[in-house]
Amino acid sequence: MAPAFAQEAQTDQATETAPAAETAAATPAAATQGDLQTLIDDPTQWVIQTGDYANTRFSELDEINKDNVGDLQVAWTFSTGVLRGHEGSPLVIGDMMYLSTPFPNTVYALDLANEGRIAWRYDPQQDPNVIAVMCCDTVNRGVAYANNTIFLHQADTTVVALDAMTGEVKWSVKNGDAANGETNTATVMPVKDMILVGISGGEYGVRGHLTAYDQATGEMRWRAYSTGPDEEMLVDPQATTVLGEPIGENSSIESWEGDQWQIGGGTTWGWYSYDPELDLVYYGTGNPGTWNPSQRPGDNKWSMTIMARDPDDGMARWFYQKTPHDEWDYDGVNENILVDQEIDGEMRKLLVNFDRNGFSYTLDRETGELLIAEKYDPAVNWATEVVMDPASDQYGRPQVVADYSTRQAGEDTNVTGICPAALGSKDQQPAAFSPETGLFYVPTNHVCMDYEPFRVSYTGGQPYVGATLSMYPAPESHGGMGNFIAWDATTGEIKWSLPEQFSVWSGALATAGDIVFYGTLEGYLKAVDAETGDELYRFKTPSGIIGNVMTYEHGGKQYVAVLSGIGGWAGIGLAAGLTNPQEGLGAVGGYASLRDFTALGGQLTVFALPD
Amino acid sequence: MRKPRAPGAVLAVLMLTASVGWSQEAGTTADTTAADTTADSTTAETPQDPSTAVAREEDGRYFNAEDIPTFNIAEDGTVDWRTYSGFRRYHAECHVCHGPDGEGSSYAPALKDSVMRIDYYEFVGIVAGGIQHVDAGNANVMPAFGTNVNVMCYLDDIYVYLRARGAGALERGRPAQREDKSDVIREDENACLGT
Fold first, then answer.
1. Cα(A85)–Cα(A566) distance, integer angstroms
2. CB atoms within 10 A of CB A16
3. Helix crossing, B81-89 with B155-166: angle to 10°?
4. Is A96 helix (H, G, I), strand (E, B) or coil?
5. What is the pLDDT of residue A581?
6. How confident is the model at residue B127, as a pLDDT?
7. pTM for the structure as a whole
């Protein structure tokens, strides 16, 4: 087949205009990096799931803006053929759109110059048994692109490199063992001549790691575990720091009892970011296993941690553990957004993280210094504050409220009224940042829980949970289960907050048109004013939205696209509605059931202004 | 005495359940129809229903006339230990796919309805051995929990809890009051867990 693959020309052109001096080094690796960076910097493309390396999800495109977004129309649609939770988004490189589905992880290449004709498709052959060990739906947060190659990380942890022109397999490699509960839901991140690959399975006692593979061959370059001996974590006891101090020897092993670190979780299924100037990659690690904290005394390092590493060899620069000794399943995997903003009159290189635990952290991304930690949902109650005084022995640690400590209550005690619930004030659904307003736009959950831990035993490849949960909308609030908020990370304050009936489980998009887009679980695509939050547009797509909104330009026209397809944690937890046991039997079933609003689907909807 | 149905029959039942999936409306309708046609003089909700009615009690465990485990809920709402334990175990091991309170989800069927359709032996067989329904339009796979003591040691608890939900005898949420755990139940639990 010979569709018009204009990205050839695009790429060549990109190379010519690339600031070669800046990318410097004479290695082909640096050249590849330069090409990808140039494509990412071109707002007409959407080259990486996170919009850019900094994870801002901001687009310079402004044809669609706050004055005309009300006229938005559906331009075209595409059914993926799969009826499961659709997370992530398509990519657009030149004339080609690439999108992937939940299990079986079919990849489509759609030729935008030819009315979206399917240029090629790739159907992986996977053992369906992997579905059985995927906690909470068979979602997949999309493919990655670099160097004329599409990278797919399948549910069964097969990483496959596909020729972007033809879909032909260049190489494939297995990153984990599904029989042991190791699976994948995340995308991969291309950096230099490598891709960085994570692992899921925190509810199966999986030991988390991040792995770098050679883009051209699939050869493993390095693997950094989240727990265990220093050399396996790629930690230097002196050079790697925590809050400015050397991390010291055996920091992980000494924070666990016996060899529990081997089944200790700290999986890496979130989003990754990269700062090319500092040459550091950032990501977070998930919850420690089991959910019963009494069974794993200690800080359980380095679960629940923001990690900064050198991409060349994986060596850790700095760590910051947000929730030592987790007692609530507050996975620390959410995206780290890299922005340069002024704090106290000084320009700082910042990393902003909206953690599941309900705190938003602002750190210096060069040193890992903690600058701000504030609650981004007023309902958060499990901790009073994070100690900011470097002189305190509690520096950087959340101050846990005894009433909400499932560890202090002990096994077989039901601790009630904990906010947020295990799904966090925000899960993986990524926030956006607009350099024009200086604000972050954050999709959030407004849900609390009762949590009762109990003893469990570990069996390889079997769930390793150990807690009973009930979740319900945050009490004494608006009754809904979500908010979409605007956040100022330099002060740690909410600018505005839009109540939503259900958790907002869609990734946001901010644009130079002074608007912010997000999707809702009922299936609405919404556009709001970036300054005020005023709603400017809504359209109900065929199924609930847990995908991320993206934008691109083709043929001189701006498009906005989002995947619909209810599922994931949201579809499981909210399908039947929630109940609040604290409110007594009379209120049971009083909250909205998601299944009254939407049904399974799998569709891409692409929007544009009328011609 | 009932015999477990042939595996094919189990699959057929579960395929129906799976294809209903998210749309619990359809599942509920099917349930109602089944109840209407099978129950002559009684309904599923009445205590006289022989499949849920308690025929005997032993060390805090309740059984129907066919010696199948069943729930026991007093007039003041106090549930037997196994129903309470089943609530806890369900919300640890099952709800991440099947949703809260046995209500089903976008991902997996409502087990409170499934246990009213299939019998005890099928329930045990499916939990222990898993089940798959994979074709062009579906990819529903339930794992085999046969080696997982956190599930298998509490199978009867989960069963009677779901039956109580399915029969309409137990509302959503955590049971407010429960009977105490008997010594025999405690001993059997420890033996099963190997602790």
1. 5
2. 9
3. 100
4. strand
5. 57
6. 96
7. 0.88
Statement: residue A457 has pLDDT above 50: yes
Note if A275 is an active site residue.
no
Rg (CA), chain A: 22
Give the integer Cα–Cα distance in Å for A341 and A329: 31
Name every chain B residue with its beta carbon within 8 A of the beta carbon of A455.
195
Sign of CA dihedral A20, A26, A30, A36: positive
A190 and A198 Cβ atoms separated by less than 8 Å:
no
Contact B106 A471 (CB under 8 A): no
Residue tagged active-site, from A329, A355, A377, A427: A329
Do residue A576 and residue B130 have CB atoms under 8 angstroms apart? no
Choose, out of B14, B107, B148, the residue to mutate when testing the contact with A (most A CBs < 10 Å): B107
Nearby residues of A20 by Cβ (< 8 Å), 6 or more positions away: A34
| Gap between the Cα atoms of A82 and A102, Å rounded | 7
* Minimal C-alpha gap between A575 and chain B (Å): 5
List of domains in chain A: 59-82+429-446+481-611 (2.40.128.630)
The predicted pLDDT at position A33 comes to: 67
**Percent of chain A whose predicted confidence (pLDDT) is above 70:** 92
Q: Does A395 touch chain B (CB under 8 A)?
A: no
The count of residues in chain B is: 195
Chain B nearest-CA distance from A15, in A, is: 42
Q: What is the largest CA-CA distance in chain A?
A: 71
Q: Which two tokens stand for residue A454?
A: 């109990």
Structure tokens at A381: 């109650």
Residue reference for tokens 């002559």? B40
pLDDT tops 60 at residue A8: no
Q: Which residue shows structure tokens 């402004």?
A: A62
Handedness of CA A6, A9, A13, A15 (dihedral sign): positive
A401 pLDDT higher than 70: yes
What is the pLDDT at residue A572? 83
Once rounded to an integer, what is the mean pLDDT over residues B169-190?
Answer: 92
Classify the C-alpha dihedral B90-B54-B80-B62 as positive or negative: negative
For residues B97 and A573, give the distance between their C-alpha atoms in angstroms, rounded to a whole number.
9
Q: CB-CB: which of B98, B130, B193 is closest to A457? A: B193
Task: Identify whether the C-beta of residue A61 lies closer than 8 Å to the C-beta of residue A44.
Answer: yes
Query: For chain B, what percentages of helix, strand and coil (3-state, to nearest 5) are there?
Result: 50, 10, 40
Inter-chain contact B103–A576, Cβ cutoff 8 Å? Answer: yes
